[in-house]
Write the structure tokens for this entry.
Amino acid sequence: MNARINPFKGTGIALVTPFTATHEVDYVALDRLVQHCIAGGVDFLVALGTTAETATLSADEKQRIVAAICAAASGRVPVVQGVGGNDSAKVAAELKAGLREGISGVLSVSPYYNKPTQEGIFRHFAYVAEATELPIILYNVPGRTGSNMAASTTLRIAESVPHAVAVKEASGNMEQCMEVILGAPAGFDLLSGDDNLTLPLVACGAQGVISVSGQGFPKTFSQMVRDARAGNVAAAQKGHYALFHFTQQLFAEGNPGGIKSALKHLGISDDALRLPLWPVSAALDAAIAQSVHQLQNYES
């Protein structure tokens, strides 16, 4: 058996889906966003995650968005596709049907809404993993799913599924993250799912992040992660604190409203969202605009 290797280290970006003012997918802006991220030095891209408002996309839109991201990336960085849900059979069927050529891995969220037991979470991932040979990144985000995937469950999946290569941990529980890092088998890594916890998590042994705020300022964010992984703490702290309040603002009224506000002020895409999401308040939008200006000066 080949040794497990996680190919998704460093800075990954959970891409938004840009919409026009009439709420159609803006493929021109999507291409602009991908070019912006790659030029900023990110290591991989994630399509159809939570930040992409995937729950509001049609099957045809999902296919076109993935195709557009792969075309824009043009093989320069790996592209991971989000494939998850709360019906194990449907998730497995989607994976069995095959993903687009050019997709390098799968990000799969722990089942939401149903609130399964730890045994149910383990059985879900064991089942859907049989439907694909692509590397799988598990995704634990209890604030959205309604249930936490315990460290013991993550490690059990890692031991049982040889092509599970990482977990995106967005529980905000540092001790849980450290339990995963400490107990993980070789080739299985923890990736931060909380932008402002990325530096401390890398210091504890995480191998990167799947970031939202990084698509606003990929140059600063990806350099911060590189510095952290290289043990250059002083330089990493500089980037971390440059982005710290900006990142807090992005999540103050929910994701992806904040990052779409930032991308609007950066001239990359509109801030339109699909219901039930709604753009951020005028006060927060103005605060984000000020932070964008300050960070542009920081990078110049």
